[in-house]
């Protein structure tokens, strides 16, 4: 029996079924290093799988989303945030006949470079590093260099573009990247509100009636409204858009989240300690790089700037690992006779 090239069949099916605005796998700009193509999976399916099996992806389960090192079982972590973004983005992509595999790969990879303790850790490294630090640029560095012992994952151009431009200041080149960019924003806003309600930081009464009239009277209703609005206003169009009313309501809701949750003394009461801890770790490893593991020693030997490698090492830590390292370095152990 002659083997049928499944990938080619999938690519042909994409041309027939996906929107002409979609990023078709067969039209990808490819990888920096040429590879033999898989006979089963498309280029974006392979990218998704590479991200899913990466060490950086596994570490997301022990990194802060909003609440630093949360002790409850039901608070979101960076990993659960990533999965929510992926699923929400896939829902929208399917409705718009876009490439779900590309959307999923971008979504799963968009936060791989995030620090321990969320944006508090990102701010600490950005303040300490001469070259600055952003989690989206670090996510690209993870997939292009740090994974696979310095070889990176060799992802496609479209996935790299989506990861790099998922923040709201720039626009991804593909509609799939634009979908992830919006879904990242609406996902963290709504699941963070759910966590904040559980923690007693905010209640539904804090949401103005004007917002509830536009988006709905509960977190679930508002998320559903925004997804429908994005689909309605983006269908068969060359950009991903929202209605002015929904965007205005969402932006106001985001302001409320920053006022009452993200800057809340309850949610952020340990943030100063986290920043100080990571700053102390940064200074220590800049003066004493030898304790960093072998893969980071190899980066230094290859000519990578020490400042950048120290940021690589610290940003790759989970919350608890960074605490353990801090205690190991700075907290004295009690003396005992052996």
Number of helices: 17
Please name the CATH topology: Hypothetical protein af1432
Question: Mean pLDDT, nearest integer?
Answer: 92
Low-confidence stretches at least 5 residues in length (pLDDT < 50)? none
Q: Mind telling me the C-alpha Rg?
A: 22 Å
> What separation lies between the terminal Cα atoms?
70 Å
SSE-based structural type: mainly alpha
Silhouette = flat
Helix and strand run: HHHHHHHHHHHHHHHHH
Task: Tell me the β content.
Answer: under 5%
How many domains make up the 3D coordinates? 1
- The CATH architecture: Orthogonal Bundle
Describe this protein's structure.
The chain is an all-alpha fold and 338 residues long. The chain has one domain: Orthogonal Bundle (Hypothetical protein af1432), CATH 1.10.3210.10. Helices cover 61% and strands 0% of the residues. The protein contains 17 helices and no strands. It has helices spanning 6-17, 43-52, 55-59, 78-95, 100-109, 118-128, 135-150, 157-164, 175-198, 209-215, 219-234, 244-262, 265-268, 271-287, 294-301, 306-315, 319-330. The longest helix is centred in the middle third of the chain and has 24 residues, at 175-198. It is flat. The relative contact order is 0.13.
Characteristic key phrases:
338 residues, mainly alpha, Hypothetical protein af1432, 17 helices
């Amino acid at each position: 029996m002659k083997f049928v090239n499944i990938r080619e069949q999938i690519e042909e099916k994409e041309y027939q079924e996906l929107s002409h605005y979609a990023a078709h796998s067969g039209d990808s700009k490819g990888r920096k290093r040429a590879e033999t193509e898989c006979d089963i999976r498309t280029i974006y399916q392979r990218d998704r799988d590479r991200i899913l099996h990466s060490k950086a992806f596994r570490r997301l389960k022990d990194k802060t989303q909003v609440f630093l090192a949360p002790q409850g079982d039901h608070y979101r972590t960076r990993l659960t945030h990533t999965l929510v973004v992926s699923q929400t983005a896939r829902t929208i992509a399917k409705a718009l006949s876009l490439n779900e595999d590309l959307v999923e790969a971008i979504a799963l990879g968009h936060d791989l470079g995030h620090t321990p303790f969320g944006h508090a850790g990102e701010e600490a490294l950005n303040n300490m590093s001469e070259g600055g630090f952003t989690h989206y640029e670090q996510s690209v560095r993870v997939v292009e260099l740090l994974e696979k012992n310095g070889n990176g994952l060799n992802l496609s151009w479209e996935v790299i573009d989506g990861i790099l431009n998922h923040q709201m200041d720039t626009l991804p080149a593909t509609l799939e990247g634009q979908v992830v960019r919006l879904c990242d924003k609406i996902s963290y806003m709504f699941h963070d509100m759910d966590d904040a309600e559980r923690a007693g930081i905010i209640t539904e009464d804090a949401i103005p009636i004007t917002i509830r009239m536009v988006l709905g009277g509960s977190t679930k209703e508002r998320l559903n409204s925004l997804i429908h609005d994005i689909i309605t206003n983006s269908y068969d169009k060359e950009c991903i858009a929202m209605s002015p009313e929904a965007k205005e309501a969402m932006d106001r809701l985001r302001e409320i989240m920053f006022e009452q949750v993200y800057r809340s003394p309850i949610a952020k009461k340990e943030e100063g300690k986290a920043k100080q801890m990571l700053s102390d770790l940064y200074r220590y490893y800049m003066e004493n790089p030898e304790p960093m593991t072998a893969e980071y020693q190899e980066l230094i030997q290859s000519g990578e700037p020490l400042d950048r490698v120290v940021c690589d090492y610290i940003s790759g830590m989970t919350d608890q690992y960074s605490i353990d390292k801090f205690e190991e370095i700075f907290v004295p152990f009690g003396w005992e006779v052996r």
